[in-house]
Specification:
By secondary structure, the chain is mainly beta. The chain contains seven helices and 44 strands. The strands form ten sheets. The chain has a ten-stranded mixed sheet. Strands 35, 36, 37, 39 and 42 form a five-stranded mixed sheet that branches. The protein binds [4Cu:2S] cluster and dinuclear copper ion. The site of [4Cu:2S] cluster has 11 residues, from strand 26 and strand 30. This is Nitrous-oxide reductase.
């Protein structure tokens, strides 16, 4: 115990050293900047980037879209958070997206995006991302770049080992970081050990629509499930999860959860469990969770509260789950493109551990076990080990693959990216990162076919890389060219929120299916004003529905009378434009629901509850035409 505590504090000391060198005034690129770097990131005006990169926003709850190699930010896609820029989470149509069993939760902590795949290759249809805090998984439609669906994950807390997907997008997986009582109940915290559960949720994705549904929850022992990765190729059908806190400590975690020499990677044969549940296995449990779906034709989300979930006890399905001992609180869990190697990065280990899928199967076949934990067989470390990358750096976190036999592991404490060879385990290159890198990303790095041209490091500490902007800096990404033998640092660019991970895809795979216009003729919104004749005002008790249209450069109607203090006024605004990229905005004085941004063909609704008598203006917030400043109107509010 002593030993590891010392190692841990020793590492912290080195971390302080490494990060403090950023304080010495002027930054340096580290001397590794290659010649011609500028040319290789330069995308001329009017030209397009080669890749899209989707960065998680961390505590912004959103996703940001960047181009590579330019590092230009194209868009922020609202997912789990209210977004004043376009009224997401404020408009009546989008509020249901943020509904949960805890009520309306307009925020989350989004960590890991993953792009859908077909036959182990990126297909660019959807991107999934997890909400850690109030456990949720979102699906974003990559034809519209809009959040299409959010499903809450019950019996779970700290939905961290998500949202990774299997090679035909059969499942998106969600694993709980915090073990919790299942079902939730009033019980002493000290009774954690042996009583809390770690739910691993397998959420099926419908092949055509992408619609998510929790197929089953595997009720694992109460460890912390940190990260996960699907098997692929030969290991398709398996999923791997790193665990820490196999000590099952519930207090003073930084000491008490770091006692064991090895924690586990849990290998889950989901095909076997799928078969088991398809044959009627498992137990249906009451569980409340929201399922929110956005419809592109009504332009409206609906939220349904589900009442039960199918759970599976892993000890009831022989051969379904094994534990692979892995040193020192492994964080990242990454499977290489061939599906053979499972890399477990022990945060507090000085070596990288690589397991072999083939050896794992052989050991299982021979039933060579080293005891069990809660009825789950533990394999022998030596029997599943493929190799060790010896002393590559300090504080390994995450590994990416270039598809050319190389792996790239981030080291938080020694603040660097280390390139090493699969099979020989030798370190072949290293580059410093500025500073303290978390994840790295290679476009397609989670698939069988990575595009090994660029590597992005997502750095936790920015310090002196940009002009100071007060005590809080945006985070920083760095772009490396990895097409040659050595990594070359090309470029720094700031990122928004706290990107934990990113997913990249060749631009050409998305451009072909990109949607530019919602057709007015396909608008099925119940309050749409599709033609000039459809605009009207309807009163129903205190509710007033205004069917309003907008087209350059006026609102219809633009003078509204007959409204009283205490009314609920719904402005249902249809943008009748049918040109690409001509949105109109709508803002009302004193409205607490932010504003709307209505794209062509769409209808969106702002609820306004007038509090004061008077004549109150509204206007278009998006500079849409030469007569944008004329896009305005008045509402007369009379006493109740
Ligand atoms: S975690 Cu953040 S650096 Cu959420 Cu993927 Cu490792
Ligand atoms: Cu419409 Cu400005």
């Amino acid at each position: 115990m002593k030993k590891y505590t010392n190692l841990y504090f020793g590492l912290l000391g080195i971390f302080a050293l490494v990060t403090s060198c950023g304080n010495q005034g002027k930054s340096s690129s580290g001397g590794a900047l290659s010649s011609g770097a500028a040319e290789r990131v330069y995308v001329a005006p009017g030209e397009y980037d080669e890749f899209y990169a989707f960065f998680s926003g961390g505590y912004t709850g959103n996703l940001t879209v960047y181009g590579l190699p330019s590092g230009r930010m194209f868009k922020e896609i609202p997912v789990f958070s209210q977004f004043p820029t376009n009224g997401y989470g404020y408009s009546e149509e989008t509020k249901p997206m943020l509904n949960t069993s805890f009520g309306f939760v307009p925020w989350d902590d989004a960590h890991h995006p993953d792009i859908s795949q077909t036959n182990g290759e990126l297909d660019g249809r959807w991107i999934f991302i997890n909400g850690n805090n109030t456990p949720r998984i979102a699906r974003i439609d990559l034809t519209t770049f809009e959040t299409a669906e959010i499903i809450e994950v019950p019996n779970s807390a700290g939905n961290h080992s998500s949202s990774f997907i299997t090679e035909n997008t059969e499942y998106v997986v969600a694993g709980t970081r915090f073990a919790v009582p299942v079902p939730q109940r009033d019980m002493p915290i000290k009774d954690y050990k042996g009583n809390f559960k770690g739910a691993l949720s397998f959420i099926s994705v419908a092949p055509e629509t992408g619609r998510m549904d929790i197929k089953f929850q595997l009720m694992m022992p109460g460890f912390n499930y940190d990260l996960s990765h699907p098997g692929r190729g030969k290991s398709h059908g398996w999923f791997f999860f790193t665990t820490y806190n196999t000590e099952e400590a519930n207090t003073l975690m930084e000491v008490n959860s770091s006692q064991n020499d090895k924690d586990f990677i849990a290998a889950v044969n989901w095909k076997k469990i799928e078969e088991y549940v398809n044959n009627g296995g498992g137990t249906i449990m009451p569980a409340e969770y929201a399922h929110n779906v956005y419809d592109d034709h009504t332009h409206t989300a609906t939220s349904t509260m589900k009442k039960e979930v199918l759970t599976v006890d892993p000890t009831k399905v022989p051969g379904a789950v094994y534990f692979l001992p892995t040193p020192k609180s492994p964080h990242g869990c990454d499977v290489d493109p061939s599906g053979e190697y499972i890399v477990g990065n022990g945060k507090l280990s000085s070596d990288l551990t690589v397991h072999s899928f083939t050896r794992m199967l052989e050991a299982i076949e021979k039933e060579k076990f080293d005891g069990e934990a809660y009825g789950i067989p533990i394999l022998k470390f030596e029997d599943v080990l493929a190799g060790v990358v010896s002393q590559p750096g300090l504080g390994p976190l995450h590994t990416e693959f270039d598809g050319k036999g190389n792996a790239y592991t981030t080291f938080f404490i020694s603040s660097e990216v280390v390139k090493w060879k699969l099979g020989t385990w030798e370190v072949v290159d290293r580059q410093p990162s500025y500073y303290s890198v978390g994840h790295g990303m290679i476009p397609g790095g989670n698939s069988q076919k990575p595009f090994g041209k660029y590597y992005i490091s997502m750095n936790k500490i920015t310090k002196d890389r940009y002009l100071p902007v007060g005590p809080e800096m945006e985070h920083s990404a760095q772009l490396y060219d990895i097409s040659g033998d050595k990594m070359e640092l090309l470029y720094d660019f700031p990122t928004h929120g706290e990107p934990h991970y990113a997913a990249g895809i060749p631009a050409e795979k998305l451009i072909a299916n990109s949607k530019k216009i919602f057709k007015l003729s396909e608008n099925k919104h119940p309050y749409a004003a599709l033609t000039a004749n459809d605009t009207k005002i309807e009163r129903d008790g205190k509710d007033v529905h205004i069917y309003m249209s907008t087209i350059r450069s006026h609102f219809t109607p633009d003078n509204i009378e007959g409204i009283k203090v205490g009314d609920k006024v719904y402005f249902h605004i249809t943008n009748q434009e049918q040109d690409f990229d001509v949105p109109h905005g709508f803002a009302m004085i004193g409205a607490t629901n932010a504003e709307l941004l209505i794209v062509p063909g769409q209808t969106k609704t702002l609820l306004w509850e007038p509090k004061k008598v008077g004549v109150w203006p509204f206007y278009c917030t998006d500079f849409c035409s030469a007569l944008h400043q004329e896009m305005q109107g008045y509402v007369r509010v009379s006493p109740a």
